Amino acid sequence: MTADLDPKEITELVRELLGSGSRGVLATLIDSGALDLHVGAKLVLDESGERHGNLGQDALEEAVLRQGAGFLQTRDEARIFPVADFAPELTEFAGVKILFERIEAEPRLIIAGAGHVGASLARLAAMIGYRVTLIDDRAEFVDRKSFATTGDEAIELIRAKDWQAALRQAIGNGRGVSVAIVTRGHKQDEECLRAAVETNPDYVGMIGSKRRTNIVLDKLREEGANEVQLRKVRAPIGLDIGAVSPEEVALAILAEIVAERRGGAGAPLSKWRRMD
Fold it and tell me: Three-class SS string for 53-77?
């Protein structure tokens, strides 16, 4: 059994997890029921199975760790569970409640192409909390002077001398990363998509007509690119909202990215009411 965690230790553990690109769960005992347990006791579990902290009872702790591992596989940010829900065999702890909170870096969006759609998408994604990287091979398109208004300062701007190298470096291990390819031509699309399918981000989408996107996908398929990864590519990118302007296209793209991250269907919510 490990020692209790103080606030500074929790902060440091969270910082280490985020810095390493890992994920974890913070479990807090928020209701002890009728038992003499320490309300506020915490456990930190990282995805490798390493644990820190102490809930005061070994059996309870083991059950919480198992539930924490399952919680990491969901899309929830935070949720309260009675122990009776996930460990009904522990009848003595039936009245205990645990708060599970996800420890994970903010979602990242890598945008290849800083034209009208790419720039609009970068601004919109930054507004809703994404960590945005905007890449282009044209210096004037990623000039900080063009992104000087409030909110734009959070957008990372990269001049790509080599599209593939720039994308690979920006994507990293791909965890928590969405990639939107909105470049100006087939050649750039191919280079960006080649890098994206090799790095396995959570989401990859490419702008263009069905014909244009199929040409790029078929070219990579002929080169021997991973078929499983190619089938994950959203092309043409975005949800069908009848978008016309660059800003509307950016909204359609971001809507699909959010739906993929959150597990949404992308269907009108009003359908639920009409089905009742």
Answer: ECCCCHHHHHHHHHHHHHHCCCCCC
Can you tell me the distance from the alpha carbon of 81 to that of 67, in angstroms, rounded to the nearest whole number? 9
Give the residues across from 204 on adjacent strands. Answer: 179
Q: How many CB atoms lie within 10 A of CB 152?
A: 17
d(CA 101, CA 8): 17
The neighbouring-strand residues paired with 234 are 205
- State which amino acid sits at residue 187: K
Nearest to 118 by CA among 106, 130, 128, 110: 110
C-alpha 182 chain-centroid distance: 20
CB 182 within 8 Å of CB 115: yes
Q: How much is the mean pLDDT over the chain?
A: 91
Q: Where in the chain are the domains? A: 7-103, 108-262
Q: Which residues pair with 53 in a beta bridge?
A: 43
DSSP state of 137: S
Neighbours of 97 (CB within 10 A): 18
Helix, strand or coil for residue 6?
coil
Domain 108-262, what fold?
Rossmann fold (3.40.50)
Q: What is the pTM of this model?
A: 0.81
Task: Give residue-wise pLDDT tens across range 78-87.
Answer: 999 999 999 9
d(CA 108, CA 130): 5
